Amino acid sequence: MTQPEVLKPLKTWSHLAGRRRKPSEYEIVSTNLHFSTDNPDAPFELDPNFGLAQWYKTHRNASPLKHADWNAFRDPEEVVYRTYNIVQDGQETYVQGLLNQFSERGNDRMLEPAWAAALARLYTPARYLFHALQMGSAYLTQIAPASTISNCAAYQTADALRWLTHTAYRTKELSLTFPELGFGSNERGLWESHPAWQGWRELVERALVAWDWGESFVAMNLVVRPAVEEAVLRALGQAARHNGDTLLGMLSDTQLVDAERHRRWTTALVKMALAVEGNAAVVTGWVEKWAPLADKAIDVYLATLPDSPGAAANAKAAVRAHRAAMGLPAGL
Predict the structure, then answer these.
(1) Are residues 53 and 25 in the same domain?
(2) Can you give the pLDDT at residue 45?
(3) pTM higher than 0.90, yes or no?
(4) How many structural domains is the chain composed of?
């Protein structure tokens, strides 16, 4: 009688067993975590026709952005929750040190009234914009076709919340020195009606209802976020330094550090997608759809920024250079 073969227990997760080395922490805690991708016809192993299953089948599984194995994507920096918290704990310690040191030296009392008024118009309402970035990344976290993509989007979501909290903190500080300028009370009205913000409002409100996961990723990470980073972070930070507001310039620098990390994983995912025939046309079409709205937002916002000649042209050129570095057509 033939004895049944005794199977040896795996020393690692089955999807990592083919590698000839011990899996890294990143591989163990980041890869193949989405159970909803196991059965494309019934994403949640329930009735394939209930609302949420239909949503994922339509906006994720049927996306025109295709790849045979999205789970092959890897964050180039292999960030995990543990290391993210270590890095950003250091970042937040630095930011808190900046806020404390500038507060102790009476920074806000040294600001020119005209610049303080510009901050009330062009800086503190940005918390609404940063919240939109947060929501866009949170949607991608939920609907991305691979957990390694979702993880990157989740850390990006957290960074947008940090940017929002930095802005809210400065809003309160500025309200104590300039109570007559409406800090902390006028931002919603400015976001909803001031001309400088209406380009951003249209851009992000439309991008937040781009339900297809691929279009959402392209709209937010290839168009919206780079435009915000170049105009509302970099250009505003440079104008702040010109107007004696070193604190805002340094806060913007810390946020741009986050933005560079977001750009690195975005670039890796775009290059992976472009290696598949047909995806270049899909991505290019989406960029062409969304880029004019971003250009308009940059132009209108930076037209009102003091001491910033050529800022809009520089911001748009930087955004296009970023996309070209991913392998998209130059000038797109």
Answers:
(1) yes
(2) 86
(3) yes
(4) 2
pLDDT digits (tens, 9 = 90+) for 49-77: 999 999 999 999 999 999 999 999 999 99
Structural domain boundaries, residue 55: 21-61
Find where tokens 């670039």 sit: 267
- Cβ atoms within 10 Å, residue 125: 23
In this prediction, the residues of the chain whose per-residue pLDDT falls under 50 are none
262 part of a folded domain: yes
Query: CA-to-CA distance for 297 and 287, rounded, in angstroms?
Result: 15
8 Å CB contact between 172 and 184: yes
CA dist 93 to 98, 99, 154, 244, Å? 9, 10, 21, 23
Evaluate whether 102 touches 170 at the Cβ level (below 8 Å).
no
Q: What is the pLDDT of residues 201-255, one digit of tens each?
A: 999 999 999 999 999 999 999 999 999 999 999 999 999 999 999 999 999 999 9
| Residues with Cβ within 8 Å of residue 66, at least 6 apart in sequence | 276, 278, 279
126 with 46, same domain: the answer is no
Residue 175's nearest CA partner among 232, 120, 228, 221 is: 120
Whole-angstrom CA distances from 99 to 36, 173, 238, 328 are: 43, 10, 18, 40
Is residue 220 included in any domain, yes or no? yes
